[in-house]
Amino acid sequence: MIATLEGISYLLLLGVAMPLKYVWDKPEFVKYAGWAHGVLFVAYAVALIMCWAKYKWSFGKAALIFFASLLPIAPFIVERKLMKEALQNA
């Protein structure tokens, strides 16, 4: 769920707040969207570390999931794959 929220906040920051700042001179939207995205990014990183320890993921898997958070669409893909993996292992 955190990956989905983080992905949405990233898309809102890039697709809504940044154009509002640079096209329509409305920088306040970047302030709030950026703050929300920052909080969600930290939550994503903390959840990743907790899952890495709990599920004993390899360093490569954890690194791949972390780097996925840097791409706008990738957190949705990660969330979907992890949910599918969790359902198979349940």
Automatic annotation (TrEMBL):
TM spans (from-to): 35-55, 62-78
Annotated keywords: Cell membrane, Membrane, Transmembrane, Transmembrane helix
Membrane topology value: Multi-pass membrane protein
Domain DUF3817 span(s) in chain numbering: 1-83
UniProt keyword annotation of Membrane present: yes
GO CC annotation, single: plasma membrane
InterPro entries, per the entry: DUF3817_TM (IPR023845)
Compartments it resides in: Cell membrane
Signal peptide start and end residues: none
The keyword Transmembrane belongs to this UniProt entry's keyword annotation: yes
Protein name per the record: DUF3817 domain-containing protein
Lineage: Bacteria, Pseudomonadati, Bacteroidota, Chitinophagia, Chitinophagales
